Amino acid sequence: MKRNAMKLRNLTLTLALMTAYAGASQAQSLAQLYEAAKGHDASYKSARSQFDASLARAEQARALLRPSANLGGNLSKSDVENLVNPAASRQPQSRNLSLNGSQPLYRPGNQASYEQGMKQVGLAEAQLKIAEQELIVRLSQAYFDVLTAQESLNFVKAQKSAVSEQLAAAKRNFEVGTSTITDTREAQARFDLVTAQEIAAENDLRVKRGILADTVGMTEVKPQPLTAGANIDRLQTGSVQSWISQSMEENGNITQARIALEVARLEIQKAQAAEKPTLDLTASYGMARFSNGTAVQVNNNTATIGLAFNMPLYTGQASQNRIRETVALEEKARNDLEAAQRNVAQTTRTAFFGVESGLSQIKALQAAELSSQSALDANKLGYQVGVRINIDVLNSQSQLFQTKRDLTKARHDVLVGQLRLRQAAGVLKADDIKNLDGLLRP
């Protein structure tokens, strides 16, 4: 039985190690890394905490309109010593217990503070939305940066292999006397250059992977690559003006600025309330017990209900200057809203034209890739029949692989650009991450 138990434990450990190894070697989708990033990213978690704090602050503002009550009491005992007549010495005691409550009836400043607290919830929601969208874009940028760096390294290695073959061919031709030493040296120089590019590409991939790992809080990240036939021409219909109009309604920065303006207006109401009267309903109940240490005792129970009225008469110009201050701050908030609208419109316009330009660039690079491949084939054939030299073939190879790298980067940039456009319009959501996963190869 012990031997079987030992075998079972060994089998369990082996399966666990196999599962862990498989999980570490398996490529992660963008949605999987996004879920990991939400639990790790400090900026997003900070916005989430701020949202929770704003909910609590709103409840504090609501309390300004609710009744308040407090319970108080005291107990005291004295020792009075009569030096002339020690028999007259005594130890008086006093006990008091009171319950006090009040209900605001007319406090315009409290009402304005309550409305500000409710606005803070909307402000926190906008901030959380902005943080979530920024995380999506930042993660997607890091994700596709890794894919771009990986593809660049693959193209450099392929170019190195092609140049190596060309170098070997140049050496053979020189040995048999069909080419000059110049061809060999040109091929060797290009091989050394590609080797240096390979080192730089490996380092760039290492850095990009580190950035992605830091974003999601994982030590091993392996993004799923983009499928070769992925249809990334998915720019939503509509003109640039329609996107700008949508951003004016949905963009989180504009929402924040709009709420800030509303809060500034309520701040004016609070400042004006300092010059208005206040009225509270008050009630109290108290019990007093007193003993002078002899036979004399006093017991009192007192219940009181009434109205407390207060009318500010003179505040040393403090309230008047506070009103001037809040009016100026409201004007500032209005200008901030206008500036936010202009910035968002410009950002949306730039993102829209960036995606359009990227899609056009992809089509041009696809045509250039075919042309570069044809040029390379023609130069190889010309080199074999002696009408082209080795440098022509090397240049054609370099142009083809550079075009492939540019095309890969352009495809990735368009995908991130579409996310940035939706972010500028304020409609970027986690579902957009899932849509991108459909373009990735598991």
Describe, in plain words, how this protein is organized in 3D.
This protein is an alpha+beta fold. The protein has a domain at 108-275 and 331-442: Up-down Bundle (Outer membrane efflux proteins (OEP)). It is built from ten helices and four strands; from the N terminus they run αααββααααββααα. It has a four-stranded antiparallel β-sheet with strand order 1-2-3-4, with no helix packed on it. A hairpin with a 5-residue loop joins β3 (278-291) and β4. The longest helix has 69 residues, at 108-176.
Q: How is the topology of this model organized?
A:
Blueprint lengths: L1 H24 L4 H9 L3 H22 L4 E10 L15 E14 L1 H69 L4 H36 L23 H11 L1 H22 L4 E14 L5 E14 L7 H68 L4 H36 L4 H8 L5
Antiparallel strand pairs: 1-2, 2-3, 3-4
Helix pairs in contact: 2-4, 3-4, 4-5, 4-7, 4-9, 6-8, 7-8, 8-9
Can you tag this structure with a few keywords?
69% helix; 442 residues; four-stranded antiparallel beta sheet; 10 helices; Outer membrane efflux proteins (OEP); 12% strand; alpha+beta
Structural class: alpha+beta
**N-to-C order of helices and strands:** HHHEEHHHHEEHHH
N- to C-terminal distance: 43 Å
- How many helix segments? 10
